[in-house]
Amino acid sequence: MPAPPLSTDLTLDAIRRHLRTRTVGQTLELLDETSSTNTVALTLAHAGASDGTVVLADHQTAGRGRLGRAWHSPRGSNLYCSIVLRRDIEPEHLANWLSWVPLTAGMAAARAMTCISDLRPMLKWPNDILMGSRKVGGVLCEGAGLQKRHPCVVVGIGMNVNVEANSFPDEFREHATSLAAEAGRQFNRAELLATLLRELETVWEELSAQSGAERVRGYSRVCATLGRTVEVQLLGNASVRGRAIAIGLDGSLHVRQDATGEGAGHIEPVIVRAGDVVHVR
Ligand code: BT5
Fold first, then answer.
1. Which DSSP letter does residue 55 get?
2. Is 280 in contact with 243 (CB distance < 8 Å)?
3. What is the DSSP letter of 48?
4. Hey, is 254 helix, strand or coil?
5. Does residue 127 have its Cβ closer than 6 Å to ligand 1?
6. What is the distance in A from the centroid of ligand 1 to the CA of 259?
7. Which residue out of 71, 123, 135, 163 has the highest number of ligand 1 atoms within 8 Å of its CB and is therefore the one to mutate?
8. How far apart are the CA of 47 and the centre of ligand 1, in A?
9. What is the rounded average pLDDT for all residues in the chain?
10. pLDDT tens-digit profile of 143-178?
11. Among residues 69, 215, 225, 240, which one has the fewest Cβ atoms lying within 10 Å of its Cβ?
């Protein structure tokens, strides 16, 4: 039988044929269209959805990024998915765990892309998946009950898969790309999704098993931000400019600020726990 056209590649059957996980994606809801898979997954999480539940949509009418920004989500060409993640975490480790969840999700997304395409995406701290300087995907984590001993997070991942590079809106066309635009061929989304879910399962097992130093080493290897001159917009109006020199054990970004004059070399780096990074050089 001839292969189905790629626009109909995202079916439950096709996903299950490729899926090799124990928990992540074993419960999976595939929607033709929704506002935002994160919104649906948050509702399911509040209603008690189990760890590893996945919501996937072919099209989002109100896909979102961080800080109320929009995520461009055309039909039939990309991946928009949200995963319910539940763990048993000691309260004193909660903040650390919460900062590593989005970083490790980005690592899993980059690994999955490499597995199916041989491309080598890198990560812009904290949540962008880049091919060169262009964004090919992003991660949005939202809490669904963090006050308890059993925190629950919804991890939303958007990947530009088969969308044409010239179809992005003007505002960010120069800064966006897709796997197909980079590789010069189309990809099967069911296979990519199943690979992503397997990689997520792996990174989240590693997150519980690894030492902090191993975690930092793993992330640093795929982090395009390290060594770059960056401009960081902190929450509020403040910003920091300098060289990104390290990832902290808590997943923070350490930035040595530009400074001149006596004693400049001894200024402690700024530790950034949340913010928007621009790679300047
Ligand atoms: C992100 O936000 O990068 C997180 C994106 C997460 C999207 C997924 S899709 C499944 C789940 N359900 C949702 O509703 N969301 C998640 P941020 O760092 O704030 O980046 C947003 C910015 O990226 C926008 O302001 C645009 O400049 C740019 N942008 C929007 N859509 C894009 C796209 N498809 N590809 C590349 N860049 C895009």
1. E
2. no
3. T
4. strand
5. yes
6. 33
7. 71
8. 26
9. 93
10. 998 776 789 999 999 999 999 999 999 999 999 999
11. 69
